[in-house]
Amino acid sequence: MAPKSQLKSNKKFWSLLIKLSILGLLVWSVYQKFFFNENFDEISEAFHEVLNSRNNFYLILSMLLMPVNWGIEALKWKKLISKIEKISFWQSFKAICSGITLAMFTPNRVGDFGGRVLLLEKASKLEGIAITLIGSFSQIVASFGLGFLGWIGCSKVFRKVSNTEFALWVLLAMASMSFLFYAYFHLDILKRQMSKISFLKKYEKYYHSIVNYDSKELWTILFLSALRYSVFSLQYWFLFKTFGIELELISGLILIFSIFFAQTIIPSIAIVELGIRANIAVHFMSYVSTNPTAVLSAAFVLWGINLLVPAFVGLLVIFSIRNLLKTK
């Protein structure tokens, strides 16, 4: 009995240590972003002006869309994970938040995969990670497709490219999207290729479930990804209006889609990503605004609303889990 008691005590100790490490990494990362940002003073001043004014209607709208944004993602993950474990929408939402927490300080947000499966009770964590990849892939397909449309629109409306260059961009978009759609709707090919790799073959039982989705289910997941993309694009447009950038909806979405398109193809860490996002946003918005501080402020607040807030909610979720070392 003593060894079992000791083992249980050790697991509690290591679980607590992991939780405290996550807390430390998150707080330190956020601290760096706030206090080592060369534009923080200007952004802070612009934000306070908005808060002190009576015209913060668009800011409130953007904040209200945050739970809609992640609610759609929670619904998407709930549908995906139902193949191996039935969970409630609330459980899925908490899983999404815990994933955001770990994604904040990991390269290319890989922590998101591990964070989401922490709340699975019956299913294999590795199988859950494999299924999470499908959701991420669907978001990439939707983001890349809509983003490319925005880039093409930006090339014609704002960059004023020649007809030849415009036609080349259209052809490239069609070719790229054809490839992505084919790959997304033929996941069995991916599974077969993975099975040919010796060190992955022994894990085949964990990623076998990625081929258990029919075309109707995959279309549903892709639709939810596109819907979520539209929601956080609308949030961005609201925030541009919040900071005084007057922009028609269609023109705004063309530029916002272009911004997200550029961000999609640049790997980064979520906490560092703010600086990258801001520079990209300033570049594209220079077509319609000469106020980079307003653009930077919109990017910063969007990051805070969509990532910072749910990341700390996810931290509470992680601390509520009794044993992080429990595996299946």
Describe this structure in words.
By secondary structure, this protein is mainly α. The protein has one domain (2-320). It has helices at 2-35, 40-52, 57-81, 89-103, 111-116, 125-157, 163-184, 187-195, 198-201, 204-207, 215-242, 249-264, 270-285, 292-320. It is globular, with a radius of gyration of 21 Å. Residues 268-272 have low confidence and may be disordered.
What's the alpha carbon Rg, rounded to whole Å? 21 Å
Number of structural domains: 1
Poorly predicted runs of 5 or more residues: 268-272
Please indicate the percent range of residues in DSSP E strands (runs of 2 or more): under 5%
The largest β sheet comes out as: none
Shape: globular
Task: From the structure above, extract its key features.
mainly alpha, 14 helices
Topology of this structure?
Elements: H1 2-35, H2 40-52, H3 57-81, H4 89-103, H5 111-116, H6 125-157, H7 163-184, H8 187-195, H9 198-201, H10 204-207, H11 215-242, H12 249-264, H13 270-285, H14 292-320
